[in-house]
Amino acid sequence: MILDDFLIRAALGGTGVALAAAPLGCFVVWRRMAYFGDATAHAAILGVALSLVLSTSLFAGVLTAALLMALSVSLLSNRGYAMDTLLGVMAHSALAFGLVAVSFVSGVRLDLMGYLVGDILAVSRTDLAIIWGGALLVLALICRRWPALLTATLNPDLAHAAGLDPRREQLVLTLCLAMVVAVAIKVVGVLLIAALLVIPAAAARPFSRTPERMALIAAAIGVFSANGGLAAAYHLDTPTGPTIVCLATLLFLAANLVGLRRKARGQSRASRL
């Protein structure tokens, strides 16, 4: 069968993660939540340890830990702590405590590097079902709440006037972020999840005149990065997760160079007039 080919499974897994991360990554960029995503991703290692200790599924453990981290940051941010300080403390402490907790798990052979930088080539059929199930759930939730999420992101006061609760929309984004972290850990790993969220969205920005267009372009860049990075890693014999992020970074640099060139042309035409 076609799914017996590990490269096909890897490509499908990378595509599913990229499609889920793209629209969510746009909100991360618009809300300047990049470090928030990093803290949530780092909590995934705690989830790995939790799932091993309790003998539960990896997806359930990572989702629980990521969701608890995201909710904790959201709650503590309104208690007088500076957001950058709070995120710095929680992101690094979650990763450190997770690594220590994993070291206490005995009798289990654990590929820690696979969780840190991903192991997309080891994606199984079960992993594919989880990745695509989570990705479709995230996409459905974002599509359903898109107008409310966009209004709450761009203008919280306008959202209040329209009868929307910005905190509820923040909770929706928190839930989606935890879901993406849970499905992406197999593909790009804990250390690179935030990069896959932010870089395609940032690369799409110079070509986008509307939020919807930015989300679609980010999805295209994410899918191309996942599959192109997979192919490059296969031929160059490099780590797959980091190679995917490297390709996304190159696309980001190229997009910004094109954007700067367009801006320079526009200024030149304006000066002539």
Question: How would you describe this structure to a colleague?
Answer:
- The protein has helices at residues 6-30, 34-42, 44-54, 58-76, 83-103, 112-117, 125-154, 156-161, 166-184, 193-204, 211-236, 240-272.
- The mean pLDDT is 82.
- It is globular and about 70 Å long.
- Helices cover 79% and strands 0% of the residues.
- Helix 1 (6-30) runs parallel beside helix 7 (125-154), helix 1 packs antiparallel against helix 9 (166-184) and helix 7 packs antiparallel against helix 9.
- The protein has 273 residues and is an all-alpha fold.
- The chain has a single domain, classed as Orthogonal Bundle (ABC transporter involved in vitamin B12 uptake, BtuC), CATH 1.10.3470.10.
- It has twelve helices and no strands.
Order of helices and strands: HHHHHHHHHHHH
User: What's the number of domains?
Assistant: 1
Note the main sheet: none
Number of helices: 12
Task: Provide a short characterization of the protein structure.
By secondary structure, this protein is an all-alpha fold. About 80% of the residues lie in helices and about 0% in strands. The chain has one domain: ABC transporter involved in vitamin B12 uptake, BtuC.
